[in-house]
What we know:
By secondary structure, this protein is of the alpha/beta class. It has helices at residues 21-32, 48-55, 73-85, 108-136, 157-177, 198-202, 204-213, 226-233, and strands at 12-15, 36-41, 61-65, 90-93, 139-144, 182-189, 244-247. It contains 8 helices and 7 strands, in the order βαβαβαβαβαβαααβ.
Amino acid sequence: MILDKFSLEGRVALVTGASRGLGHQIAVTLAEAGADVACHSREPGGAVSAIENINKLSRKAISVVGDMTGKSVPTQVTEDVLAEYGRIDILVNNAGMIRRSPAVEYSEEDWATVIDVNLSSVFRLCQAVGRHMIDQGHGKIVNIASLLSFQGGITVPAYTASKSGVAGLTKALANEWAKHNLNVNAIAPGYMETDNTSALRADETRNGQILERIPAGRWGTADDLSGAVVFLSSPASDYVQGHIMVVDGGWLAR
């Protein structure tokens, strides 16, 4: 049956940035589809809510902790998950951040931090988990890109550069790892109701401009990503490689 191909029963997933927003919903969604989940957060206790919601689904959930700006953290997080579950079948690289400033005023510190969290840590975790998945003989990696993987944005040069890099990295890893039965893809959310967009939604003029451009006529919610996440994490997407799936209410189509 076709729906069986969307089941994640028996799989183990690692979701970064699972403390709130998109990451929280992604972690719970994977559990709803049958997976046990390792929920990453930067600080201890950050993923408590996600873990509680997953346990209510009678799925196993654990917390893994680490600041992704640390070069050794992705390897440590990978080892922690393997120590608990013995395997990782799905990796969702969701952890990210944004800092806004005109380009001529953008600080070196902001540039370096955003690039490190949004891009360098994604590579490091893909590398650490990818080694395991290659030995295991299969795996699904889903990176969270952005509309700004395709567009320039305004006053977010580091975020745009990092998310453009995530799209390119996704394709590069797919090219290398498809032969190992690993699928590497990405989801590019549109304008979503998250902490990262709170400033935009609070700006009446900018909020109106954004809504006018979205054919669906509304901001996206975390739940709008659920179908895409399950598809790219499941056997239903076994022949999908290096794809950047846009979930944007039609923004790029206009």
